[in-house]
Amino acid sequence: MTEYKVWAFARSAAPNLPALEEQLAEVMREADRRGYIIVNSCMEQKYGTEFWRPDLFAMLTAVQHGRVNAVMVQSLDRLSHDITTLYRILRFLQNYGAVLITTETNLQYELYLTGLESRLLNRPKKRKPVWVCEECEDGNP
Asked: What are the residue boundaries of the Resolvase/invertase-type recombinase catalytic domain, all occurrences included (predicted)?
């Protein structure tokens, strides 16, 4: 079993700080329940269509430097609502061997619905899937 060093990530554009704090707390509780190591966390009060977000880039930098090998969010749209931006983020995670874990949705199904599943799986063979499948024996689809 892979030992996941997790960055817990929460984002909302709504000006409701308690709801954003609860979103992050839920992600962190789930990471703890699954036995993951929580390395860092962040909350963003930004629109999901924006790409240049300081907390997003802090998380990506941690992935790039190998400090974390997993990013955990409630659902795919917590990273971005923009498909191009989302694909760039997922491709980046895949390039660095990091996985994305969602707590409230079936990530593989979300990727399928957005059309990103096949794009990620059709990348060069040395790339592993970017998601974790809790129902699968080895954690991969």
From this structure: 6-131
Number of structural domains found in the chain: 1
Residue 87 lies in a domain: yes
**Which pLDDT does position 126 carry in this prediction?**
52
Please check whether residue 19 lies inside any domain of the structure.
yes
**pLDDT tens digits, one per residue of 18-70:** 999 999 999 999 999 999 999 999 999 877 666 778 899 999 999 999 999 99
User: Which residue in the block uniquely carries the two structure tokens 């063979």?
Assistant: 125
Residue 10 scores a pLDDT above 60: yes
Q: Does residue 135 sit within a domain?
A: no
Phi–psi pair at 39, nearest 5 degrees? -85, -40
In-domain check, residue 109 = yes
The pTM (predicted TM-score) of the whole model is 0.80
C-alpha 83/C-alpha 11 separation (Å) is 16
Q: Which residue range is the domain that position 117 belongs to?
A: 5-121
